[in-house]
Design brief:
About 40% of the residues lie in helices and about 15% in strands. With about 200 residues, the protein is of the alpha+beta class. It has a four-stranded antiparallel sheet with strand order 1-2-4-3, sandwiched between helices. Bound molecules: flavin mononucleotide.
Length: about 200
């Protein structure tokens, strides 16, 4: 009898400590990275430090690529004049007016083994950039370039990108301007769009 009570108690203690661990893991997940992502389209002039830029770029390189083809390339823009040139052909890019940092994710069609996967890989790299920027406390906004020809052309001209390299998406990063509306961004969970084992 005593043995039975003992094992029931042990079971209760073990399951309580396990559920605490799960809660802890969820809390820590929600306190950084993608769960803290915030969108800004007007930025303060504060610079992003070189070490922070490198960490963001390293996060992009840490992204997976099909067959490990590694054909994404990154153009880091901090020069205001260059940034304004990026606006050519990009109608929804007002963030470029004030951003201290813009990273253009491009794909190299010459080094690609699986060209059909390049767009997907650029998107994954962009997501890593958004998550790392957010982890460092920055706001951001992604802006698509491809597949629109005029946007690809405008960005390629502004950055002197060779024809075999296609810019896909650019991400403005920085601290939001004091009066800027920065959206909370991540509360989009919708259980109706999640399907387990079958649609
Ligand atoms: C593929 C893609 C393209 C986007 N293009 C633009 C753009 O050209 N200009 C812009 O201001 N925001 C752009 N966005 C940002 C979306 O407008 C934004 O993520 C969406 O409105 C939801 O807002 P939130 O990210 O703050 O939750 C783009 C986002 C994605 C994923």
């Amino acid at each position: 009898m005593v043995k039975k009570i003992y094992s029931v108690l042990l079971f209760i203690i073990l399951s309580c400590s396990q559920s605490k661990d799960i809660i802890k893991a969820e809390e820590s997940k929600q306190s950084d990275g993608i769960f803290d992502r915030k969108t800004a389209r007007t930025f303060s002039p504060d610079r992003v430090a070189q070490e922070q830029i490198e960490l963001i770029i390293k996060a992009a390189f840490a992204s997976p690529t099909g067959g490990n083809q590694r054909s994404c390339e990154f153009i880091v823009v901090t020069d205001r004049n260059v940034m304004l040139n990026l606006k050519k052909g990009n109608p929804y890019s007002q963030a470029l007016d004030t951003a201290p940092l813009t990273i253009v994710v491009a794909v190299n069609t010459k080094t690609a083994i699986y060209p059909e996967l390049l767009t997907l890989e650029a998107g994954i790299a962009a997501q890593s950039i958004l998550a790392q920027a957010s982890k460092l406390g920055f706001s951001s906004v992604p802006m698509s370039i491809a597949p629109q020809r005029n946007r690809i052309q405008g960005v390629s001209e502004a950055l002197n990108i060779p024809s075999e390299v296609i810019p896909q998406v650019m991400i403005c990063i920085g601290q939001p301007a004091i009066d800027a509306v920065s959206s909370a961004s991540t509360n989009y969970y919708d259980k109706n769009k999640v399907h387990y084992n079958k649609y």
